[in-house]
Each structure stands twice: as structure tokens, then as C-alpha cells.
TrEMBL record, chains A, B:
This protein's name: Phosphoserine aminotransferase
Single GO term (MF): O-phospho-L-serine:2-oxoglutarate aminotransferase activity
PANTHER family, per the entry: PHOSPHOSERINE AMINOTRANSFERASE
Cofactor: pyridoxal 5'-phosphate
Subunit structure: Homodimer.
Family matches, as InterPro entries: Aminotrans_V_dom, Pser_aminoTfrase, PyrdxlP-dep_Trfase, PyrdxlP-dep_Trfase_major, PyrdxlP-dep_Trfase_small
Family annotation (HAMAP family): SerC_aminotrans_5
Reaction(s) catalysed by this chain's protein: O-phospho-L-serine + 2-oxoglutarate = 3-phosphooxypyruvate + L-glutamate; 4-(phosphooxy)-L-threonine + 2-oxoglutarate = (R)-3-hydroxy-2-oxo-4-phosphooxybutanoate + L-glutamate
Domain Aminotransferase class V residue range list: 5-339
Length: 353, 353
């Protein structure tokens, strides 16, 4: 039976990527497995360099003063690294959900944090607008897509201070002027690859402004100087991310996948809005094109609905444990067809009820 | 042609582990790939729990107050975490090579470091003995095996302060009373699995003694409280490490592989000592059973030797870029047969020369 995997991450990846990764485990270089060779060998150094180049190319940031790194530790490690490397006295943070809140918590260990706005007052169901970013801050930090609550920033503020963005759950999903950001980071396990590596794209001119001593492994300068191989990199995760970026580039790049992502989002949100059995969680104007969060209006239909989902091979639709309800995560590799199957089940439930 | 992979890490892994990992990428849970499912799903939570249990079982530390964690960031991140979590005022470090030196460098960011002894005076070709560990230190840190220089600690000092050991390159390779250590850490990419995860085994009673604020992701307590899933773990690396530990347990555990490792070491070192064309780098009494470092006595034979190696399918024999010469890394999954092939080439070179 065909599977429709709506998991919020780790999540569906392109079939051909998984096939190639599986083959590379058996024979990558002259009979040796991808995971048995030295990371300093030419075949793997080539992989790392290609991954770094592809990331910059897809974001249209090549030759613009940026470096791409594939690190370990997830976005949660970036919450710390961003502050360690950039926060000298004060920083501005926009609070749009759990991950923003966590980023703020870690930054407070290193300096003063201005929370410029927060949507905590309405369970993070919307994105605050019309806030002011203090000009004396070292940087402004925001989270472009809020996986848990299903909101997404459609515009970004204009500011003269460096803008740092956690794009873990919508990187490579839509066209943006990425040069408005001084630093972008993203855990791989949504649109980029398997769990285990984190992309950091940083404009070099923002570094070297803090006076503290930074541990080597957490120092962007050290990682850049070592070409993203200060220590043994997470070989498999970097290789599989490279394959996924290659797949996206061969499709035609971000603009092509964005058109597909728009269709998927339109399809599911139309159903949520038209079907009286469902209600969306996020404010309409702030709805995420990656994660559609919704609830059943009649809880007695829960079991029926979930049995129908299972029968159609739909998995990963449960909302985050902190929110409940449902969440349809529609990352790049999820097909429009899969969203169609889900929408059919939702319509079928209405006919049955 | 059969391959003989002497790579220092990432390195050879058991064939059946690689086979199973490759299959799990195609279908791990009900048609879904290992890297496409939620890390919070039961199938993966079971993997993490089994990996944590196996690590404690293999080290005979189950039920003795220890916790096993599978983190990200390599031993280089542990250099920082150990100091952040344990170093309140002073710590004692034994310097036996590059990795010890790096651990010392990072610890100095957090307190006073006593270098109790160092073998830097002789290019780290031996292990210092008869040093004193100050009793007022928060902990004593050592590196059990020095991959680059090919030395290994055969005994560990008696001390009343917690002993911390970087076992990245010899974990699970020999029996020891592991309860003499309060904290053991090891990057996976030698005896345990692919690059991308780091095992930390920590006795809980040594935690909560420092007064500083520790970033969540770098806090052992936080990681323990979250069952090694504070954030998305490196799914593939943890799964493949679990398979490798399972393979070792099925073989009969560490004592069985230790006997095999002893045979491999004896074979190569006998050849190095008997063959006038080769000379060992490390002091005889401190030789590593994992990494045999040696040089050609007649450099004009270099090309001939390396051509012969290649012809026999031997790879990964180059010494570390900072040392040169040769290094035969003989981790758990390297067979005695492979060492035999290498030794045959060394003998053949002698006959030819």
C-alpha cells in the first residue's frame, strides 16, 4: 500500500534519495561503504564541498560573502552558538512559539534579550506584526516557520542590524531574498535530509565582534577555517542532505518546489475552511505552508477519522504533544497526491457524519 | 577483490551491520524508511532505549548509578561539556597527545587546569607514569588510546576524585573495570558505529556540583531527564551504533573481541619488530592495540610498498597528517585475516628488498 507520511520531522524524503543513500552504504567508493571511509578522503571531502556549494546556490547566496557549514547538534545547539558568537550586550528576539522561546532562554545566558513581540497571549496561533527592533541590539532573531503551531512569517522586518533566522522547518521551501539574513540555520530533518546535521549559512562580516572566548567546536570562525570539518562530520547525514539538495536543484530549484508547496497548502486549507467538521488552529493570514494544524469540531468522530486515515496509509498526522489535534506536515518531498488522499478522507468523513 | 580497510575512523564496521542499516533505509517500520519516521515514534524510542541499555550492559555498568546518552558533536563537544558540567575551580588532565591537548585547551575556558604529566617532550610516543593527581581537583581527565601516535593506557591511576576518560578510539575493545570511571565518552566512528553520534556514560552522583548556568543542550542533567532526546537525535547513527553493539553482544561481548584484538596486535607488532624494514613509533610498553604506528626504515621503498598494499586491497594505512608514516588501525570489525594480509605484504617487501 502507498504510504502518505505527514510526519513533522524527521519526515518524508525523496524516494530516489533514500535509494541512493541505501546503495552508498553498501558501496560508495571502490567497494567501501560511505560510513567506512575516512572523512578526510577525497570522495568525502568532495561530498562536503558539494553540499556546502549546493546550499549557497539554492539560496542564491553564492559569491555574496556567505559560508555554508554542516554542523551537529540541531537548532538547539544553534540557539547557543548564535548567542555565543554574536551577542555582546543586547539582542532582539521575536517570540512566535516553542522554538523561539527556547532560543530566547539560551540567549539570556549570554546577554540581555529584548523580546520585541510575542504571540504567547493567544497560544502562538498568530505572528505578531508592527513591532520595533531596537537599533542598538547586536542582532534580531526570528523563527520563520513554527512547526508546532502551524504559523509562518510571510514578511520579515526591515532592520539595519543583522537578522538571524531559524529556518529549520521551511528552508528550501519558498523563494525569499535570502540576502536579507545575516545568518540562517536549519536542522536537516525536514526539507534537507535526515536528522543528524544542521545547516548554518553565515555572512562572514558579522563575526569577530564579540569579546568572549568561544569554545572551538562552537565557534563559527573555527568551523569556517576548517571547511566545516573541525572534527569528524556526521558523514551519512551530510551525504544524504547533499543528495536531497541535488534532487531539488535538478527539479529546478526552490521556485519550482514552491509552486508545488503552494498547491498543497491551498488544497488542505480549502478543505479545512469548507468542511464543518474541521477548524484551523492558526490565524488565516499566518498559516504555514509547511504545517497545517487543525482540530475536529466533533470529538466523537476522532476514532472514525483516525481509522479512515490508517486505512489509507496516512501516518504522522498527530499534532505535537504540547498542542494536540492534527498537523499535516507537507515538506518538499510530500506529494500533492498525498495531500489529495488526506483531503479525500476529510471529505469522506463529512459525507459519513 | 576483498578489501582490507585500516582506516583510523570512520572505519570498517561489521558487514552484517552495514547490510541491516542499508535495509532499514528502505524499510524500517511498515514500509517507511528509518530516516523518515518521527524520533518520538515507538519504533525509534525502542532503538534509543536499546542502544542506551546495550552500552551499559557491554561495560558492565547496568544498575550501578550510570546513565548512557547518545549525543551529537563528537568528542570535541565533550571536551567542552565535561568542563562545563564538572569544572568548578580546578581539574587535572593527563596530556598524551593531540586529543588530550585539545581537551585541556577547552577546559581552560572554565577553570584552572593542572597538567599532571605530558609526553609532549617525546612527540607523544609514550604514556607518562608516576604522576600525582592533586586531591583538590574536581576531576581527573585522561585519553585511554591515542589514535594519532599509537599509544594506549594499560593501567589507570587510583584517585579519589572522579576519573573522566575519552575512550573514543578503544571503547568496547578490551575488558576493564569500567566502574573506576565516573564519566566515559566516545565518538562512535571507531568501534561503535558511523560518525554522527557520541556515547556518554556518566555516573549521576558527580553531576550538580557546579554553580554556573549550563546551556540546555550541553547539560548532562537535561539530556538524562529527556532520555537522550532533548532534541531530535541523530537517528541513523544511533540505530547503526545499536546494531554494532548488538553484533558485539551476540559475539559474546568485550572479552571475546578483546582476545581477537590481542591476536591482531601481536601479529602486526611481531612483524614490525622482526622486519628490519620497519620501525615502530610508540614505546613498546605503551603500544596501542587499536592503532599500530610505524615507519619504513628505507624511504626509497615507499612507492614499492604502497603499490603492493594497493594490489592487495589494503587501504587507510597512511599515518595521521600531523605525524606521517603508517598507521594500521585494527578496530573490532577488522578481521585477523586482514592483519595477516598486511603482514604478508610487509614480509614480501623484505624478501624483495
Amino acid at each position: 500500500m502507498k504510504k502518505h507520511n505527514f510526519s513533522a520531522g524527521p519526515c518524508v524524503l525523496p524516494k530516489e534519495v533514500i535509494q541512493k543513500a541505501s546503495e552508498a552504504l553498501l558501496d560508495f567508493d571502490n567497494g567501501l561503504s560511505l560510513i567506512e571511509i575516512s572523512h578526510r578522503s577525497k570522495p568525502f571531502v568532495d561530498v562536503m564541498e558539494k553540499a556546502r556549494r549546493l546550499a549557497l546556490q539554492l539560496l542564491d547566496l553564492e559569491g555574496k560573502g556567505y559560508q555554508a557549514l554542516f554542523l551537529q547538534g540541531g537548532a538547539s545547539t544553534q540557539f547557543v552558538m548564535v548567542a555565543l558568537n554574536l551577542l555582546e550586550t543586547e539582542a532582539a528576539y521575536l517570540n512566535t512559539g516553542t522554538w523561539s522561546s527556547n532560543a530566547i532562554k539560551e540567549a539570556k545566558l549570554y546577554g540581555k534579550v529584548h523580546e520585541v513581540a510575542s504571540s504567547a497571549d493567544k497560544s502562538f496561533s498568530y505572528v505578531p506584526k508592527n513591532y520595533t527592533i531596537p537599533a542598538n541590539c547586536d542582532y534580531f532573531h526570528c523563527t520563520s516557520n513554527n512547526t508546532i503551531f502551524g504559523t509562518q512569517l510571510t514578511t520579515f522586518p526591515k532592520t539595519d542590524i543583522p537578522m538571524v533566522c531559524d529556518m529549520s522547518s521551511d528552508i528550501f521551501s519558498r523563494t525569499l531574498d535570502f540576502s536579507q539574513f545575516a545568518l540562517i540555520y536549519a536542522g536537516a530533518q525536514k526539507n534537507m535530509g535526515p536528522a543528524g546535521t544542521t545547516l548554518v549559512v553565515v555572512r562572514e562580516d558579522i563575526l569577530n565582534k564579540v569579546t568572549r572566548s568561544i569554545p572551538s567546536i562552537l565557534n563559527y570562525n573555527v568551523q569556517i577555517a576548517k571547511n566545516s570539518m573541525f572534527n569528524t562530520p556526521p558523514v551519512f547525514a551530510v551525504y544524504t542532505s547533499m543528495l536531497t539538495m541535488e534532487w531539488l536543484q535538478n527539479l529546478g530549484g526552490i521556485s519550482v518546489i514552491e509552486a508545488e508547496n503552494n498547491k498543497k497548502a491551498q488544497l488542505i486549507y480549502s478543505e479545512i475552511d469548507l468542511n464543518p467538521l474541521f477548524t484551523g488552529f492558526a490565524a488565516k493570514e499566518d498559516r504555514s505552508k509547511m504545517n497545517a494544524t487543525f482540530n475536529l469540531t466533533e470529538t466523537k468522530l476522532k476514532e472514525t477519522f483516525e481509522t479512515m486515515l490508517q486505512k489509507e496509509g496516512i501516518s504522522g498526522l498527530n499534532g505535537h504533544r504540547s498542542v494536540g489535534g492534527y498537523r499535516a506536515s507537507m515538506y518538499n518531498a510530500l506529494t500533492l497526491d498525498s495531500v489529495g488522499v488526506l483531503v479525500d478522507v476529510m471529505s469522506e468523513l463529512e459525507r459519513k457524519a
